[in-house]
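FORM 7B: Structural annotation worksheet

SECTION A. Query
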Amino acid sequence: MKRTICKALHWSGLVLFFLWSGNVSAQAVNGEHQRSYYFDAADQDMPYRLYIPESYDPAADNPLVVALHGYGGDQNYFFNARADLPALLEQHGLVFVAPMGLAIDGWYGAPLNVPGDAPRSGGDDTPTPGRTPEEETQYRALSEQDVLNVIDMVRRDYRIDPDRIYLMGHSMGGYGTWWLGQKHADLWAAIAPMSGVLPDLDYHLPRLQGVPVHVSIGGDENPAWVEASRQQVETMKAMGMETGYFEPEGESHGSMIAPTVPRALEFLSRYSKD
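SECTION B. Predicted structure
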């Protein structure tokens, strides 16, 4: 009987050892990773894309950037926009994760008045979701939860500095950056919304009082949005907030991503909550 128990404990220990060792080995792999997890509330597998820089040190705290894609995009959005994104991340030593946010049109939990019926920055009409307000609210809540789930998984599996977690996003992801930025302001060291500004939206700026914000918009985007972006930055400056602004000349809603990403990453990497 004792021998049977000892054998059982021996094999259980080996299984636990290999599971633990396998997890550490997976964490130790640098570079790009396409990953997924089962999102129970949505009843589906959810992808996300992760980049671990060569400088990642499992014995030290490492900075993390969370990136939100635009409408119609997915977890590959920023990698497609900047083929040299890995080199930029290596330059700043940034762990980078791009969640799916549930779907191509999840809006990351933003309320229904985001963007509402206003025209988009690129000039197109706002897409009609085809869901009731109640369904859309629940849909967006799942989108927000997916982002939070992915952040939790990365923080569980990797050594992340809680004082250097950053948020950025473009277009729909820019709205998501404003929304999740103010809603979870204690989480972020800095945020960088790109082409996600509406002149008539309450951004809850007092909640972001201690969070540096980098705003960007293409110079050839909707003129009303460009002016609103400028006014937004001036408002934050008047509140004593730490801000940055980039308006790449001649760039459209889509083409502004490539020149803006390096500026946004450089801005974010300057800051720590402590």
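SECTION C. Observations
Strands lie at 31-39, 44-52, 62-68, 95-99, 160-170, 190-194, 213-216, 243-246. Confidence is low (pLDDT under 50) at residues 1-26.

SECTION D. Sign-off
Analyst initials: ____
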